[in-house]
Amino acid sequence: xxxxxxxxxxxxxxxxxxxxxxxxxxxxxxxxxxxxxxxxxxxxxxxxxxxxxxxxxxxxxxxxxxxxxxxxxxxxxxxxxxxxxxxxxxxxxxxxxxxxxxxxxxxxxxxxxxxxxxxxxxxxxxxxxxxxxxxxxxxxxxxxxxxxxxxxxxxxxxxxxxxxxxxxxxxxxxxxxxxxxxxxxxxxxxxxxxxxxxxxxxxxxxxxxxxxxxx
Length: 215
Fold this sequence. Notes:
This protein has 215 residues and is mostly helical. It has 9 helices and no strands.
């Protein structure tokens, strides 16, 4: 035994790690369910049965359905950041970063990171007209995503209206997700990539024309 570390300390650390693993397992399954059935489709009893965990064990992690929903939103956001934001932010500011960000989102949806496509697209539709902590958390993550895209667009040289371009690019992504999920149309992602590429080329052309006119 390591000096200064008791057997009881090791036992406690082991229990904590097992508890964290169980929590991650619960939240991963909760996010998968919510992407298809919505956050209202979650219940402590259902998760306990599916994961073969006691109800009291699941309840001990969250304490209420609302806290389970909030924790699920945060867990889905963490996955989104890892898969979509971090790879793009590893690139220097500019067009390549923007392209990586947009393609990362399409891949996240197309590869069915969550079985219902984009987790946030699904739960935004469920909570957009409601009030409360869950709705506020979902709206906050939506605002953050829009801000990330807008800021990334603004870093591309010559873009005159980042807000408008951001609106159009996100619309392409969300339409691909919706068409794929609702109509089982995998070609929607190819069309979205073409639309993104064409719109970025158009923006670059407009920026070049504007620069020429100012000279």
